[in-house]
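Example record

The entry below shows one chain as it appears in the dataset: sequence first, then structure tokens.
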Amino acid sequence: MTHQPTTLPLAPRLPAGLVTPVMLRHLADIAEKYKGAIKVAGNSIVILGLSPQDRTLALAELGLTSQPLSAKAVRSVVVCAGKPYCSRAQQDSTTLGLALDNKFCGAELPGKLRIGISGCPNACSEVFVKDIGLFGVSAGYTVVVGGNSSRQARPGRIITEKISPAEVLPLVTKIIAYYKTYGQPGERLGQTMSRRGFEDLAIATGIN
């Protein structure tokens, strides 16, 4: 039986999924150099089929960090285009998404935590199946907590509405701190909420 070589994906961290034309060409050059395939997935561009050694070399040449694909940590924030790029957008989801990504991405937690933010109620970033989701309305943001799309899929719960962009970061900080304190190893945020009760989260975060 022929032994197949082990390959690893390389998903450079691209906050909010933003990439310049120069960076995009560089990513293509690196994929071609190391004979990798390119896959666009959500807010990510993944280079597939790299050997562990080539993956390390490619990441160094790109000058980027990699996304925490399997770690028990906050993953890269999924962000829709938002204002001013989308005609339906009611909020600037990109600016807020970048702020969330810069503050939280990679933070270690009891389990993985996904954040999604959309500029309107169409929720292109699938906010109802994120651990923490936000979507914009004219008066601010609606916050959804506890969703996931894993084997035990569950929709999130709306916990507050019409909060200003300035209020989002402090609230998300409290939610993540709650999960870090009370989440059990491998447990998702929604499971922590179910085990301890929603009122426990509401009290801890000051949600009305």
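Notes for this example: The radius of gyration is 18 Å. Residues 75 and 120 are 22 Å apart (CA to CA).
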